[in-house]
Amino acid sequence: MKPETWAPHVTVAAIVERDGRFLVVEEHTADGLRINQPAGHLEAGETLVDAVVRETLEETAHPFTPHALVGVYMTHFGRSDSYGTTYLRFTFCGTSGAVLTDRALDADIVRALWLTADELRAASERHRTPLVMQCVDDYLAGRRFPLDFVHTHSVGPKLDIQ
Fold first, then answer.
1. SS3 letters across the chain
2. What's the average pLDDT block by block, 10 residues per block, for the chain (162 residues)?
3. Staple partner for 84: which of 2, 79, 95, 135, CB 3.0–4.6 Å?
4. Does domain 9-145 have CATH number 3.90.79.10?
5. EC no. (predicted)?
């Protein structure tokens, strides 16, 4: 029997604040209808910035322009040994353009909505993960790292790193 291989799932999330309200999505999950930031998985060949721009557009129909990295978060779900599921989330903040009304949302997304921080706190039992509020709180506390804090290196010749 082949041993299990552990690898973290790399995800991105967007924080967009407009007039004291945050852009979030209501989405179908295995645990029912949940609230989350626009978020999703990094795809092969993407930069983290490309991924958060794509995910925000796919889930909200709002074009997203990242301005800063709010933080990097790690969460572990599942089994108590090292083979549960680990998510490494890069959360960016920025601005969004007007909704593209002719664009369909991802299949699991019910709708995009704008909620205040207090409304988000009041709905904490519906959050997809505790990171929803943690990221908003970090944003409200002023946590910002420049986008060049995250480096993406081009794929070149295979390196033998030891």
1. CCCCCCCCEEEEEEEEEECCEEEEEEEEECCEEEEECCEEECCCCCCHHHHHHHHHHHHHCCCEEEEEEEEEEEEEECCCCCCCEEEEEEEEEEEECCCCCCCCCCCCEEEEEEECHHHHHHCHHHECCCHHHHHHHHHHCCCCEEHHHCCCCCCCCCCCCC
2. 75 98 96 96 95 98 98 82 81 97 94 98 95 97 95 64 48
3. 79
4. yes
5. 3.6.1.-
